[in-house]
Amino acid sequence: MSIFLLLVILLSEEIGLVNFSFLVGAQANERRVVAHVTGDIIIGALFSVHHQPPADKVHERKCGVIREQYGIQRVEAMLHTLDRINSDPKILPNITLGCEIRDSCWHSAVALEQSIEFIRDSLVSSEEEEGLVRCTDSATTPVRVKKPIVGVIGPGSSSVAIQVQNLLQLFNIPQIAYSATSMDLSDKTLYKYFMRVVPSDAQQARAMVDIVKRYNWTYVSAIHTEGKLYKNQDILDIV
Ligand SMILES: *[C@@H]1O[C@H](CO)[C@@H](O)[C@H](O)[C@H]1NC(C)=O
Ligand SMILES: *[C@@H]1O[C@H](CO)[C@@H](O)[C@H](O)[C@H]1NC(C)=O
């Protein structure tokens, strides 16, 4: 957690003029850091900044240790990409992209909890537009409502992406995953608001068969994983 906090502070200095903020929300049983960049259009993102909860901490959704490559680097990549797009006058002129990055911890329960936060913000904003939100105390200044997200990027794991999609599609929020390769997600009747930027496992299998044929291999061993991750085995992250 502390490394990530430090990173967020460093990034906020680097970004300078961009209104960049982070907040530590006391949600559920664990405090999760949320990175928020203001803009005209807000894109939600779920990255696995921490490992999934260890077996004895699953019930309290307490995540594991920091993941640098699969978490922090992806957060940085997203912030960098937004900076590049926003500073280029040819891409989206006069529109500033913002984002809200949340931690999925490579775990369905945490990812769903964070997706609920995305949805809640969307619902509150639409109620505000319809004038349904009123201040109970006229003396207090009205709370500035966050802009709703236009879509969600991530999460990384197929099984977690399926859970998140089941929730997001109820609220018509599009989802684009960057590394979920499960063939199940190709079913548009089940996962209506899901898209991905990587080919499904079916394509990978076809490519593997082509390689086997091309080199006339007569014997191939296949090792299967259930998609579960244990400890720090980043190598199994190819889902
Ligand atoms: C962007 O804003 C500037 C200044 O308001 C305006 O001159 C320009 O036409 C706008 N560009 C687009 C693509 O809307
Ligand atoms: C595979 O087998 C075919 C047919 O026997 C042969 O023409 C080809 O050169 C072989 N390829 C390799 C990489 O050995």
From TrEMBL:
Localization, UniProt: Cell membrane
InterPro entries: ANF_lig-bd_rcpt, GPCR_3, GPCR_3_CS, GPCR_3_mGluR5, mGluR, Peripla_BP_I
GO cellular component, one term: plasma membrane
Signal peptide span: 1-20
Superkingdom to which the source organism belongs: Eukaryota
Membrane topology annotation: Multi-pass membrane protein
Gene3D superfamilies registered for this protein in UniProt: 3.40.50.2300
KW Cytoplasm (keyword) present: no
Receptor ligand binding region domain segment(s): 75-227
GO molecular function: G protein-coupled receptor activity
Keywords associated with the record: Cell membrane, G-protein coupled receptor, Glycoprotein, Membrane, Receptor, Signal, Transducer, Transmembrane, Transmembrane helix
Primary location: membrane
Matches recorded under SUPFAM superfamilies: Periplasmic binding protein-like I
Any Pfam family hit: ANF_receptor
Protein name listed in UniProt: Metabotropic glutamate receptor 5
Organism: Acipenser ruthenus (Sterlet sturgeon)
